[in-house]
Amino acid sequence: MTTQDAEQELWAVRWAEKITGFLEKPLVRIAVPILVTLIALVVLHELSAHVKWGDVQTDVANTSWKLMFFALCWTAFSFLALSMYDVLAVQSVADGEVPLPVAGMAGACGYAVSNCLGFSYITGTAIRYRIYASLGLDLSRVAGVIATSWIAFWSGMVLLLGTLLTMHPDGISKILPISPTLETVIGVTLLIALAVLLFWLAKGGRRLAYGGLGFNLPGGRLAGLLTVAAICDLFGASMTLYVLMPDDLGVGFPFFFAIYIGAIAVGILSHAPGGIGAFEATLIAGLGASGRSDVIAALLLYRLVYTFLPFAIAAVSIAVVSGISHRRHITGAATWVYRLMRPIVPMVAAGVAAVAGAILLLSGALPASSQKLGVLRDVLPLSFVEASHLAGSAIGVLLLLVSRGLFRKLYRAWIVAMLLMVAGFVASLTKGLDTHEAIGMVAAIALLATFKDAFYRVSGASIFRLNIPWLISVFALLAVIFWIGLFAYSHVEYQNALWWEFAWNGDASRFLRSSLVVALILGVVAVMSLFGREIPVPERTEIPAVVERLVMESEDTESQISLTGDKQFLIAPDDSAFLAYADTGNALITKGEPVGDEKAGQQLIWQLREMADREGKLCAFYSVSTKYLPTFLDLGLSILKIGEVARVPLKDFSLDGKSRKRFRQAKNRAEREGYVFEIIPKEDLAPYLPELRQVSDDWLAQKAGEEKGFALGGFDDAYLSYFDHAVLRDKEGGRIVAFANLFQGGQKSELSLDLMRYEPDSPSFVMDALFAEMMSWGSEQGFQWFSLGAAPFSGIENRQLASIWNRIGGFVYEHGEQFYHFEGLRSFKQKFDPEWSPNYLASPGGLAAPRILYEVNILISGGLRGLTK
Predict the structure, then answer these.
(1) CA–CA separation, 538 vs 566, rounded Å?
(2) In the chain, how many H helices and how many E strands?
(3) Where is 345: in which H helix or E strand?
(4) Is 212 left (phi over 0), alpha (psi -120 to 50) or beta?
(5) pLDDT range class, residue 634, cuts 50, 70, 90
(6) Rounded to an integer, what distance in angstroms lies between the CA atom of residue 262 and that of residue 256?
């Protein structure tokens, strides 16, 4: 390689890194799918500019039942292959632990739901995870099943594309601007790479591990079968649409298949449910079928057969099993099947609500039957029909929005969805006697009624608040529906008067007005979702007497932070233990572990976890020791080390030695200059609080900060009144120049402190002197330990084989000195030769851990603004 070639390669790598980093930015991740959807709709509009909606309806009606039957057969063939992904993956990762029919059901239902709702990494993956987890599979093996199925899909894709490129049948060259030789080389390379992979897997014993998770890869036989399943899946799905296409389209199947795969890729990139809009635009453009109503009709029928029919079958099947399992005289198999299928219910219910909403919106975008409007004309006034049309569209978009609440198992979302569907049923009849639509609403109501027991969470959060993936999907779907309306009324010339035209034949005017209402509702919800999060402001709560008693009896001084008054409490029925926690609106997070009896504490941990589940919130336990780790693991939580706690033995404590020279000198100097150390008992503290507050205010002003909370105490009279205080007075007038409140463990097990503040204009040695005096006093009083508190991110192994979060924590510890003195803090505490013990966060796995740490920051510092200050 020449120097010029090396420079060009380095330049290409750097640009690839820049592009990758750019695409991973949050704003870009939002903008790309929206941009893809908008471009697709513009292209679709141009390609169908000369097509009339009436012609599409005629082509749909003229489609033969024979073709529909073939399409149904290919759909069944494709979904059978989809189910085999999981059947074979389970045999590879968890052989004998999951019944194969259950694995097949999980795969088929997962894809049926994800094809309808979109973003399969949330819906389909969540379905399969919950089913397999209910059968006892741990996270690593569930991840293995899902990853193996994805590997199968791409193996089939590589085999098909490699074969097409190698053989380059007639038509493929039209979409690939490369020479036949290069096309063959790429195809052969793909096939060789796949063959090498299968040969490598055939050796057996292969395992994939990353970030602490690992699973066995399939052997050669299973890998080959998975590849065959993927080929059958892709072939069946593409044939479903191919048989519906008009005979005179003039393209062979290889060319059609290549376009079909490209359309799937663009659809995934758009984030729209099922890639709707982007998929159609890519196919029409790729096939050169612009201006053909029969092609649009084929795409509509494909959506009906391949997207909505499997979802409807899955929804009805689950509803039937649910109904059978609730009949008292039938138990056994039906109940067992429903227990396995129950995790799917929230996703199916979300899909039912979304489909019902989409039906109402589509109905509002398309012309109404003039014959049915004629019947209504004799019964209802025009104003009522117009209002019903607007209401139907508003109900439709609200059903789309509330579907996420159903996905989160919120009971209030279920109630609202039921009410909206009842209103949608009425609107369907009063806006145009849409009997088919009304029957659909009744069916949706029946399905949701059957699923009632699955919605048990009572959350205070808004059921219409969406996250970014849901917002993008709803936006994309509404954009497609709006385009359908424009397409249906393409023959109507736009003019401002249309907005104010109220007439029985004013379908275009009603479409414009309903679109505006839908856009306003979506805009309000989007603003509330992105910027309207309310962080609960903790109010001073009354500390129960049992909490005060248990805290003072506890040998762990960290439990005394529970007295700050900004936490809520779970208390054991026999008053033998309590658990202190805070509610951020998104999560219930404890500070520390239960205080009191260990068995009662275990029950409180489960109680908090169940409470969080009912409210649809995360649950985490911040800053815990090893005492309750088995219980946290039983809850399915992940354990993340967040630092270490330093404790100094006070028996025979001395300030002698080189490492403690600084503190020894500070103590001696304070004594020489007349500073006096004193302990103010809590009973005598009240008269000194104003003076202490002045010291605290001066200290805060110098730090340009604010009082903290949750894991740290602030200056609060009621809180400080629980503790004795160590103070250092100056030589003139006995003015207090530094103070600290003392945490004293039961049975004199441990001594520690929380607030430690000083006058900014006092000598630099006063804090070191106060620290040395407290430790010496603690030793004289017979305390066993002095807790120096935690050193964040200390002791975390940043090694190649460590988990991803440990490696991130180790990186922060090593390179985060410009933001926080991690290493300096540990070095300061190390001067006392302490014993270090690990400090953990127990939280849900995956991306929940950094989210929990952010929530903790909200509790401690009041959000990023407080942390920055």
Answers:
(1) 5
(2) 32, 14
(3) helix 345-365
(4) left
(5) confident
(6) 10
pLDDT in tens, 95-144: 777 777 777 777 777 777 777 766 544 455 666 666 776 666 766 677 77
User: In the structure encoding, which two tokens stand for residue 554, read together?
Assistant: 């506890």
DSSP string of 689-704?
HHHHHHHHHHHHHHHT
142 or 547: whose pLDDT is higher?
547
Mind listing the domains of the chain with CATH numbers?
A: 65-243 (no CATH), 335-533 (no CATH), 651-783 (3.40.630.30)
- The backbone region for 204, taken as left when phi is positive above 0, alpha when psi lies in -120 to 50, beta otherwise, is left
The CA-atom distances, in angstroms, between 69 and each of 73, 82, 710, 719, 748 are 6, 20, 64, 75, 82
Distance CA 733, CA 749 (A): 36
Q: Which residues contact 545 (CB under 8 A, 6 or more apart)?
A: none
Average pLDDT over the chain reads 76
CA-nearest of 126, 125, 141 to 93 is 141
Give the per-residue pLDDT at 15. Answer: 39
Q: Whole-model pTM?
A: 0.60
Extract the tokens encoding 15: 């640009």
Distance between CA atoms of 497 and 502, rounded to whole angstroms? 10
Cα(200)–Cα(192) distance, rounded to whole angstroms?
Answer: 12
Block residue for tokens 């040998």: 555
Nearest partner of 692 among 751, 778, 682, judged by Cα: 682
Segment 423-449 shows an average pLDDT of 85
Token output for 256: 């059609």
Tell me the two tokens of residue 859. Answer: 């509790």
pLDDT digits (tens, 9 = 90+) for 695-736: 888 888 877 567 777 778 888 888 888 899 998 888 766 888
Q: Report the alpha-carbon distance of residue 388 to residue 368 in Å, rounded.
A: 13
**The pLDDT value given to residue 436:** 82
Pairing of strands 835-843, 618-624: antiparallel
Torsion of CA 628, 632, 633, 636, to 10 degrees: 170
- Residue by residue, DSSP assigns 616-642 as T-EEEEEEE-STTHHHHHHTT-EEEEE
Helix, coil or strand: residue 441? helix
- Rounded CA-CA distance 710/729 in Å is 30
Q: How far is CA 739 from CA 18, 691, 770, in A?
A: 52, 10, 8
CA distance 800 to 263: 39
Bridge-based pairing of strands 725-729 and 785-792 is unpaired
> What angle (nearest 5°) sits at the alpha carbon of residue 714, between those of residues 710 and 716?
120
Q: Can you tell me the mean pLDDT for 397-407?
A: 85
DSSP 457: B
Copy the structure tokens of residue 339.
């227990």
Beta bridge partners of 674: none
In the chain, the N- to C-terminal Cα span, in Å, equals 53
Give me the helix-helix angle, 661-672 and 766-780, nearest 10°: 100
